Amino acid sequence: MPDEMQILDNLIFKIVSGKYVANDKLPSENVIADQYKVPRITARKAYERLEELGYIYKKQGKGSYVKDRHRQIELVLSGDVSFSQKMIEKGYDFQSKNVFCKEIKYNKKIYDFLEADEGDRIFKVGRLRFIDGQPIAIHISYVAKSVFDNIDAVGMEITSMFKYYNSKGYNQFCSKPSILSVTFPTKSQRKLLECTYLIPLLVLESGCVDKKSGRVLDYTRILYRSDSFSFYVIPAPEERI
Question: Which part of the chain is the HTH gntR-type domain (predicted)?
């Protein structure tokens, strides 16, 4: 008798291979139970996992439907243009909400990245990004008070770091080398992003540098819902064919 994971794997294969396409209605739990000769609870658990993984959505009283995973946001991973500007230029209904501004304890990695002295005060400013009213990314920028003297006073008002940097006289930027990794959301991140623990997050670590002075302006960690984006990385000129 197949178990929940075998049913889940089979249904995912049918969705990925195109047997079921976006907005197709899937067989009912009773049909799946009969087809695989399993208790209905096993079929229900398989569908619950499919929903948690972002493959399907449910309509109350009508059943389960395939989610359109091709309507993902195309995002070029570059640091010279703000995330807000990229989304607005693409025509999305974009919003940014400040969720925290906190002073951090000494962290060697962050202090070294910012080229800050151990006695400097570092603040992290978090913004939650929305597309069409849905939370899709958390942006956390770490900045030094020695560079931005009023960050502790105005940090909770910032929804765009680039606009804040512009107000401080920084207008041309480049990014430090970026590091990409994958993680699963913590409890607090799941609450902010309204996702389950099964939705991986793509983590982009980078930094913003003022082109004119070479001063490091921030260290940034961006957590993207992996089911909301298609990611593009622009290669260096020598890497292009």
Answer: 1-69
Name the CA dihedral angle for 47, 48, 54, 57, rounded to a multiple of 10 degrees.
70
194/216 Cα distance (integer angstroms):
33
- Tens digits of per-residue pLDDT, 2-49? 788 889 889 988 887 889 988 899 999 999 999 999 999 999 999 998
Query: Nearest 5°: CA angle at 5, between 38 and 199?
Result: 135
Domain spanning 4-66 has what CATH number?
1.10.10.10
Helix (H) or strand (E) run with residue 218 in it: strand 216-225
Amino acid at 140: I
How many other C-beta atoms are found inside a 10 Å radius of the C-beta of residue 111?
A: 19
| pLDDT, tens only, 96-113 | 999 999 999 999 999 999
* 122 and 131 Cβ atoms separated by less than 8 Å: no
Token pair recorded at residue 38: 């399993």
Contact 26, 63 (CB under 8 A): yes
Task: Supply the DSSP string of 48-117, one letter for each residue.
Answer: HHHHHTTSEEEETTTEEEE--TT-PEEEE--SSS-HHHHHHHTT--EEEEEEEEEE----HHHHHHHT--
For domain 73-239, the CATH class is alpha beta
Give me the numbers of helices (H) and strands (E) for the chain, helices first please. Answer: 8, 11
